[in-house]
Amino acid sequence: LAKTPLAKLIMVFVFICLIQIFNPLGYSYFASVAALKMHIFMIPLFFFGYHLFRSTDQFKRWALWFGAIGLVMSYYSMDQYQKGPEQMKREMPEYSVMIDFNTWQDSEGVSYFRPMSTTSNPGGASTWMQCFIPIVLSVFLFKNIGIRKRYILGGMLAILIGTLLISLIRQMTLVTIGS
């Protein structure tokens, strides 16, 4: 059998997932395992990507498309976050219960919530950012990228990472940082 591509990175990824399962601040072991469904889904995607991509140019094109899709999702996530939970309940009454369930207030009475972006679940954009950020970051780190593309990719990364932060999902942030 051929040597597994990116084996060390995949092992780091698996290690970070294991850390999240046994996180002492987690709700429960069962909930931690259930929360990893998207993370575990990423491992086969590494292999599919390795099998399907035949050139770095092809990978760069896909990374730019993923980054563009991520920017659209980020825009909606940030827009919803800025509008706040009350405005979003008026705009999307069918999601009122879900928005209420994922809204909390600080000591000064300011309401916070996890925006849904283009998904139907709170914090949904962060799940996709976890997929997009490593791809865009890998192309950003290529040696043969022009300065203009590097600035574009750097801007994309800043916005995509910002979406993780406003989605307030620490697991996604940790996995993205680790991958």
Quick description:
By secondary structure, the chain is mostly helical.
Kindly describe this structure.
The chain is mainly α and 179 residues long. The chain contains 8 helices and 2 strands; from the N terminus they run H-H-H-H-H-E-E-H-H-H. A two-stranded antiparallel sheet has the order 1-2. Strand 1 (103-105) and strand 2 form a beta hairpin. The longest helix has 36 residues, at 56-91. It starts with 6 loop residues before the first helix and ends with a helix.
Q: For the residues shown, what is the average pLDDT? A: 77
Strand order of the largest sheet: 1-2
Number of strands: 2
Terminal CA distance reads 25 Å
Helix count from the secondary structure assignment:
8
- Percentage of residues in helical conformation: over 70%
Poorly predicted ranges: none
- Derived from helix and strand composition plus strand pairing, the structural class reads mainly alpha
Topology as H/E string? HHHHHEEHHH
The global form is globular
Radius of gyration: 18 Å
Q: Mind describing the biggest β-sheet? A: 2 strands, antiparallel
Q: In percent terms, what proportion of residues is strand?
A: under 5%
